Task: inverse folding
């Protein structure tokens, strides 16, 4: 039966998650050089439009439609056929099926947008669009089905992912690694400084992400009540903890507390708590936040040693933070908080950690491999990178014939 | 006529402008510039990585004056822009061949 409170909560949550992608556009847009600000913002913004259409035409059916071999959803829900205003009892009993569908659409949107940080400042727009279509179809839809779809093999395994640690963050974080490797470094990488051109924009973006994340995690309860409250509270605690810890770690390592560090730490904490927000206590959220601040910071420092150009640190924040969160679910989850979840290692059930590890490894392997294949195919068809002179000019002018900031206002 | 180009620390601009107004310097052009001399640059930190930024922001003031006033202008800028620390900047004096006031067509001294 439809519950108006739950339905209202879910529609608002969907709107909150929608806002995260423009927030991400600002978060990334401020970190690139000024000649690429629009190109970077566009990569997030166009994804809202493109993935929405993919989702309603076939993406939702592939992700959540009737199971085919525990791997993918069937085509019965193409064009939202049968996805109506009555609840679907398998996914959410108290809201219209359509509300669940549009809520999930926002997750399908932000996930590929996250990858854009790894390919920033150098990808051809046409190749980018092709990448988003193929990645949404061949990476996002299957993984979403494995983990969340009824009949999906990871769901059957008993692995838990409350709001998308594997589906959203590990899948995008590992795709980012594959993309950074295939795309290669930006011209002049490590020879000339490539510093953020507008950090206030980045911090505004981080604030919007933090705000929207309440819809992401609390909304994943799919009801308004006790469980969504727990998810809301632990989400906030983990973000705050990781922001503090990252700031302290960077202060000790480099001698200064940076605003970008505090903002990055909050996002790392939000990533890490995502899979586990419906299963853990507030004190566990502090431990998860501490881990996120430390692990993600050092993962980014390690990037410089390994030498690949994951320009805006998608691997370090989303790949590493998502992996930590998924494994932490296996440690800190407790049935006392969510009876439909499971107990983790610290609550007497080591087997959950094993299931979590399998889910993590399967997501890493699948996302890396298929992303690699997709990029190789696009590379052969169109080429992935803009021409050298276009890269020097910047994406704003070369791809879009615009500039983000007018040198002279034409009065 | 002389052109005086002074590269100074940005926060000294108001002080220099006030001092020059005191000797009836009624116009100037300023530019935000970046450069380095002995001061070199500074270090910035983004996500745990250090970047050396060689070019430091400065203000360049351009003033055109009659020949006999140039020494006084230079002396005032030198005195007011000095902090005594590295990076205070430099002053250059160049000859100017011609000046035109666009509105009236006045030339040289009358155009200043």
Result:
């Amino acid at each position: 039966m439809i519950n108006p409170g739950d339905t209202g909560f879910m529609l608002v949550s969907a709107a909150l998650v929608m806002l995260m992608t423009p927030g991400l556009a600002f978060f990334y847009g401020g970190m690139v050089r000024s000649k690429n600000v629009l190109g970077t913002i566009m990569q997030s913004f166009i994804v809202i439009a493109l993935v929405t259409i993919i989702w309603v035409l076939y993406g939702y059916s592939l992700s959540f439609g009737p199971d085919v071999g525990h791997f993918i959803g069937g085509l019965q829900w193409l064009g939202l056929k049968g996805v109506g205003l009555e609840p679907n009892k398998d996914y959410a009993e108290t809201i219209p099926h359509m509300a669940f569908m549009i809520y999930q659409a926002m997750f399908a949107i932000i996930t590929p947008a996250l990858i854009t940080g790894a390919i920033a400042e150098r990808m051809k727009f046409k190749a980018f669009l092709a990448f988003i279509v193929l990645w949404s179809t061949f990476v996002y839809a299957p993984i979403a089905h494995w983990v969340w779809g009824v009949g999906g093999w990871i769901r059957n395994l008993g692995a838990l992912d409350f709001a998308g640690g594997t589906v959203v963050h590990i899948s995008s974080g590992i795709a980012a690694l594959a993309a950074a490797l295939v795309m290669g470094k930006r011209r002049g990488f490590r020879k000339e400084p490539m510093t953020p051109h507008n950090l206030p924009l980045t911090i505004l973006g981080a604030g919007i992400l933090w705000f929207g994340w309440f819809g992401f995690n609390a909304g994943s309860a799919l009801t308004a009540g006790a469980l969504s409250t727990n998810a809301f509270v632990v989400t906030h605690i983990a973000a705050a903890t990781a922001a503090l810890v990252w700031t302290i770690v960077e202060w000790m390592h480099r001698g200064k507390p940076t605003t970008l560090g505090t903002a990055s730490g909050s996002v790392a904490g939000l990533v890490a708590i995502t899979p586990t927000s419906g299963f853990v206590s507030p004190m566990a959220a502090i431990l998860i936040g501490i881990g996120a601040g430390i692990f993600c910071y050092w993962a980014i420092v390690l990037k410089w040693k390994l030498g690949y150009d994951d320009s805006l640190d998608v691997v370090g924040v989303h790949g590493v933070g998502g992996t930590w969160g998924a494994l932490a679910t296996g440690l800190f989850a407790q049935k006392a908080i969510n009876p439909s979840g499971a107990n983790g290692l610290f609550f007497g059930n080591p087997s959950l950690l094993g299931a979590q590890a399998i889910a993590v490894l399967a997501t890493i392997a699948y996302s890396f491999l298929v992303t690699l294949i997709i990029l190789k195919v696009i590379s052969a068809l169109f080429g992935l990178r803009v021409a050298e002179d276009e890269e020097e000019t910047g994406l704003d002018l070369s791809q879009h014939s615009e500039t983000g900031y007018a040198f002279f206002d034409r009065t | 006529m002389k052109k005086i180009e002074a590269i100074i620390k940005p926060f000294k601009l108001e002080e220099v402008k006030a001092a020059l107004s005191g000797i009836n310097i009624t116009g100037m052009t300023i530019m935000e510039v970046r450069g380095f001399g002995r001061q070199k640059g500074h270090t910035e930190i983004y996500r745990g990585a250090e970047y050396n930024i060689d070019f430091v922001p400065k203000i360049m003031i351009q003033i055109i004056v009659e020949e006999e006033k140039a020494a006084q202008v230079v002396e005032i800028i030198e005195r007011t822009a000095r902090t005594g620390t590295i990076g205070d900047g430099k002053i250059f004096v160049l000859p100017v061949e011609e000046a035109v006031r666009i509105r009236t067509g006045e030339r040289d001294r009358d155009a200043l």
In short: The two ends of chain A are 60 Å apart (CA to CA).
